Amino acid sequence: MSTLATPSLAPKARVCPSCRTGQLQVSHRERVFHPHGETLVVALLTSVCAHCGAEATSSAQHDENLRRLAARKGQYGSLLMGEEILALRRRFGLTQQVASRIFGKGKIAFSRYESETTYPDESTTRLISMAIEKPDTLKWLADQAGIEIALWGERCEDEQRVKVCSITKVYDAAQSSTKHQERYTASGTAAKLVGNFSKIWSSHVVAIRQTLTLTEIRNEASNQGQIAQQALAS
Q1: CA proximity to 86, closest of 77, 74, 95
Q2: Helix axes 122-133, 82-91, angle to 10 degrees
């Protein structure tokens, strides 16, 4: 059995938010996990009122608890932590029942995975890991099961905004580099932006100021490397 813990935080004494009479004293509680059949204990911080016994957790304690929980990942190997599975489900607006259907498991499977009452088998772990790293995998599985992903459209829009922002920053930087050389990354290729590079790039600025589709963004990204090569050759 192993235990993960660090020295307790020692904040100033706080008045209990429940009874407003007693003071909160730093305490801890334990969560027990069993990755690979081994017992892993994580000591989590909390505060207990000396007057009424109510429990409260400060924001600093909450942040420290998250750090301690994340630190156990090193002992999981290829296994997924419950928080990782929960984050995937919430990201796409899936209930536990719907997620179970998508991955071909029983109705309460994801409830047990997230609480780490049990762990997904090797094949299911691989599928969930792929869905986390490559969301298109989740979409394909959902389509096969005839299930609509509630927040799929919103997540695609998030991805589009990130790409548009990234490309726009490169354009803006290119326009400003008229007197000195700077180094930027364009479509994975480091390129020196010289004076006439901003002239070449400026002919493409109008399109980026408009709303682009994901396909247009991918095409634009692939064109960036070619533009950089033209600038360097000039």
Answers
A1: 95
A2: 50
Question: Going from the N-terminus, what domains does the chain have, and what CATH number goes with each?
Answer: 2-75 (3.10.20), 82-150 (1.10.260.40), 153-233 (no CATH)
Using CA atoms, how far apart are residues 58 and 8, in angstroms rounded to an integer?
13
Please classify residue 94 by burial: count the beta carbons closer than 10 Å to its beta carbon, then call 0-12 exposed, 13-18 middle and 19+ buried: buried
- At residue 101, φ and ψ (nearest 5 deg) are -65, -40
Rounded CA-CA distance 195/178 in Å is 4
Please give the Cα distance from 88 to 152 (Å, whole number). Answer: 12
* All residues at 6 or more sequence positions from 110 whose CB lies less than 8 Å from its CB, including other chains: 85, 89, 96, 97, 99, 100
Query: pLDDT tens digits for the chain (234 residues)?
Result: 666 655 544 556 789 999 998 999 999 999 999 999 999 999 999 999 999 999 999 999 999 999 999 999 999 999 999 999 999 999 999 999 999 999 999 989 999 999 999 999 999 999 999 999 999 999 999 999 999 999 998 888 887 776 666 665 555 555 554 444 444 444 444 444 443 444 333 434 333 334 444 555 455 555 555 544 554 454
Q: CA-to-CA distance for 75 and 116, rounded, in angstroms?
A: 14
